[in-house]
């Protein structure tokens, strides 16, 4: 009996903790030590890999400029046209001026998410520090842009003129709260989805060491991995589409 | 002293578990959005393609509230 429980304990120690993959560790100096402003960590490494992959996809992919595109060129072109149409549909023609930023946002998040799916990699977008930076830049930029483009008329975003007069102050309060919650939900949606999905994969990986349920656990890992591949793309899309919606609010604040 | 710490930890764990019930509400909301989109799309398939973006925006807003409960659970587990 005692031997059995020892074996179980050993097995549990072998299993990785599902949240261990999100630890930020310094790359040099044995993986521990203080993390300062300029310490090179695994997060730095994978952010760099993300940027390099995004540049490689877009620059090397479209370098040939062939009329009949190669495989990498057609991937780059499909993504470009997809985002271009999305910006045009949601924000209108005058939003196209901001297309380069929205496109770089999409390609960065997409590549960071996909690279984070590689086994033993580090998912940079699972950290709220990363996604909150992206969301705050969008929030500040959109707010400043709204005031620059419309002046005080931007405040009509909070004053719903379609509603009865008695309801408008209450609606204004709700609108103001929902406006300031935007960067919170914008960033946590991405980080939460990435973190939860990857943690679930690791939980099933922990089950895989128990012999008699390991086939089911490995099947579950495969299924969840497929689901995660879908979620990764959808979350990049959702982040970008919400950026477009916020931009539309800033450019055309009247309801 | 030790018992007090244990009680506080138990409260945090219980609260985290209860907070994650809120994610079920988000699941219902997302299911509603997609289900209604699908039933509309089957009635008028020609108009469906133009509304996928709206559907995703709706999903995102419904999901945001579930994510807040997830956030509360995470705060209770790791920050309190």
From TrEMBL, chain B:
One of its GO terms (molecular function) is lipid binding. SUPFAM superfamilies: F1F0 ATP synthase subunit C. Pfam families: ATP-synt_C (PF00137). It is found in: Cell membrane; Membrane. GO terms for cellular component: plasma membrane; proton-transporting ATP synthase complex; proton-transporting two-sector ATPase complex, proton-transporting domain. It comes from the Bacteria. Residues 14-76 form the V-ATPase proteolipid subunit C-like domain. It is a multi-pass membrane protein. The chain crosses the membrane at residues 12-35, 55-79. The record marks 63 as: Reversibly protonated during proton transport. Keywords: ATP synthesis, Cell membrane, CF(0), Hydrogen ion transport, Ion transport, Lipid-binding, Membrane, Transmembrane, Transmembrane helix, Transport. Signal peptide: none annotated. Key component of the F(0) channel; it plays a direct role in translocation across the membrane. A homomeric c-ring of between 10-14 subunits forms the central stalk rotor element with the F(1) delta and epsilon subunits. F(1)F(0) ATP synthase produces ATP from ADP in the presence of a proton or sodium gradient. F-type ATPases consist of two structural domains, F(1) containing the extramembraneous catalytic core and F(0) containing the membrane proton channel, linked together by a central stalk and a peripheral stalk. During catalysis, ATP synthesis in the catalytic domain of F(1) is coupled via a rotary mechanism of the central stalk subunits to proton translocation. PANTHER family: ATP SYNTHASE LIPID-BINDING PROTEIN, MITOCHONDRIAL, ATPASE PROTEIN 9. Belongs to the ATPase C chain family. This is ATP synthase subunit c. It comes from Neptunicoccus cionae. The gene is atpE.
